[in-house]
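for the writeup, i need someone to sanity check this before i put it in the appendix. the sequnce is what the collaborator sent (i think, or maybe the updated version? ugh). structure was predicted straight from it, no edits. if anything looks off just tell me and ill rerun, i have time this weekend
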Amino acid sequence: MANLLEIENLRTYFEENGSIVRAVDGVDLSVSETEVVGLVGESGSGKTTVANSLLRILPEAGKIVAGRMIFKAINIRELSEKEMQSKIRGTEISMIFQDPQVSLNPLFTVGEQITSVLKLHQHIGRKEARAKAINLFRKVEVSDPESRFRSYPHELSGGMIQRVTIAMAMSCQPSLIIADEPTTALDVTIQNQVLNEFKNLISEIGVSVLWITHDLGVIKRVCDYVNVMYAGTLMEQGAVETVFENPLHPYTHGLLGSNPIQYRPKSKIPTVIGELREIPLQGCKFYPRCPIRNEDCLQETINLREVNENHRIRCIRAEDAEALLRSRNHDLQGAC
């Protein structure tokens, strides 16, 4: 499959109180046509900053200092703000936010908001826009779509609001949708429903998706490929089945091992020790929290390297990861 999006060596920094925060520090990832690619990591790892950099919606303190973002053979960094607004945002790349209230105006009905997007980008009349909006509501399982069309955001439940924002993201038939933890704020039952509906919809219309989350369970369920991110850097990349069956980076092990679903009630759930803000100035960024670290991990720049087809890691001690995997599997068996 051809790559729809290629991000190369992306570096996005923030200046805060005279110091530089390297929120994204050399990220390389790609999304092929009709592919669902996951970007996973704990809070503060830089996932959302990658998305905001791609859409060029960074806050004033943020700046893209290096890298290329090639979308359909166009370098997004070279586009003017006017070109981004008219050619990219909403039309070619849409975003679903973690908090749907962010993307909805409380002063207008949800119907008014989605039809305004359709009229602006597709140059159609009010009647046609209304018909398309109601059809989209129906596709994402909004109950009684004709009535909901006239509702204000505060009149809808969290699940209904998220369905509306998904419909808005789909409205202009973009080539790429960025889904930034779109189900995190929902309860488990509604999350399950929305995931099923969204997965069916993206398969039906053949759109590509960059799915951002901290939940590896969601990654396994909806994605074809996964990028594991830590402290602004990608630690492991690969096909979802490959990474879940044979994780090679200690951080990936930690994320997989801390899933509470795998453990019996009241048993102790292992966690990734330490805090994200403990980052060395050189060498491996995961060093302070790594269970298999040694001094060699701080002596050199560690690059992503390919270990198998479609499987890359940023670690010089991956051979010791097998011991971690055996230990984790033993713990799981003991808990059953």
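The chain has eleven helices and twelve strands. The mean pLDDT is 86.
thx in advance!!
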